[in-house]
Amino acid sequence: MNQAFQVQGMSCGHCVRSVTEAVRSLDPQAEVQVDLPSGKVQVQSQQDRAAIARAIEEEGYKVT
Ligand SMILES: [Cu+2]
């Protein structure tokens, strides 16, 4: 299932990696695509949307 998140606070490649790894720690099979300029994060995963959002927020970013 493809899920789109709008994430605030990502500013560099390190942030992209943090967000990607946060989602993958929840679902190792997840496909994660981050568009840094727009803050849009696309996740291909069966995981619960709220759980994914929480994992991203635990890294210090804001899901809007
Ligand atoms: Cu960064």
In short:
The protein is α+β, with helices and mostly antiparallel strands.
Strand order of the largest sheet: 2-3-1-4
Mean pLDDT: 98
* Proportion of residues in helical segments: 25-40%
> What is the C-alpha radius of gyration, as a whole number of Å?
10 Å
Main sheet attributes: strand count, strand direction, barrel closure: 4 strands, antiparallel
Point out poorly predicted stretches: none
Strand content: 25-35%
Distance between the termini: 20 Å
> What general form does the structure show?
globular
H/E series? EHEEHE
* Bound compounds: copper (II) ion
User: Architecture, CATH level 2?
Assistant: 2-Layer Sandwich
CATH topology: Alpha-Beta Plaits
The DSSP helix count reads 2
How many DSSP-defined strands? 4
Assembly state of the chains shown: single chain
As for the number of domains, it is: 1
CATH class: Alpha Beta
